[in-house]
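Below is how a single chain appears once it has passed through the pipeline. First comes the sequence as given, then the structure the pipeline wrote out for it. We keep one example in the README because the format questions we get most often are answered faster by looking than by reading.
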Amino acid sequence: MPITPTDKIWMDGEFVDWADATVHVLTHTMHYGSGVFEGIRAYPTDRGVAVFRLRDHIERLFVSASVFLIDIPFSVDDVIEATRELVRVNGMDDGCYIRPLVYLGYGEMGLNPIPSPVNVSIACWPWGTYLGDDGVANGVSMKISSWRRHDPNAVPTAAKGTGMYVNSSLAKVEAIKAGYDEAILLAPDGNVSECTGENIFVVRDGKLLTPPSSDSGALEGITQKSVETIARDLGHEVHYQQLIRTDLYTADEAFLTGTAAEVVPIRAVDDRTVGAGKPGPITQQIQQTYFGAVRGEVDRYKDWLDYVE
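Resulting structure:
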């Protein structure tokens, strides 16, 4: 989706003009993919714009950096406050997407990243529904990718690493070129892992099933955890268990979750209609509650919001 530029980007403690937020061509992360990032959303509420689960996202950013042995030269609170200020400076009252990035900068080359300088940037911009308004309303078509998800003992899938997303891009392009909206990747053992940038849920007999992240090579999702809480509060059981591809074909309902995508129903997988081929009642219930929660309309979830005031 095209990016609409905003006024400022935060880079290493300073706000710089959008057009000036550049890096050298020999930036280490550009060559070797050794960086970490987050995707965060802010939403309009009756108290002004609020960032959804900001601390959880920034803490996960630091955990990812730790896994990659990257020492971020700012504290969690520094990055949280910088994010709030960035949203304020850019006047994002209608909400926005936020992208913190920790990358290894210019000055060293080669496979040893340890001597490289560590840089941090945060950008934000208006960004609509990642999989489209029609997908949110009516569901998306999915393809089981021919590309497998990473083995967690080959690369650390518990971390949100920049270079690792080549795997997702390959699967995404394959799905789009084949006429589908999104791809589902299988783990090295053949069980269901996740989508290119989202976790996946199956609904069967009123219960929600989702693959265990550590076993399947999937990233533990913040939206996934939010949906788990919402589902339990609505009276539904949630289980983390291994799924195989036919579990998707035979599900009563299925949906995906992610910060960019939010909560999106799945209407078909590999040309097999899922359930009735339209958003099911449990998916709709969870989706409506989630969209209410991120906009401050559900009192029990207001502690998930970080108001930018």
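The two ends are 29 Å apart (CA to CA).

See the next section for the split statistics.
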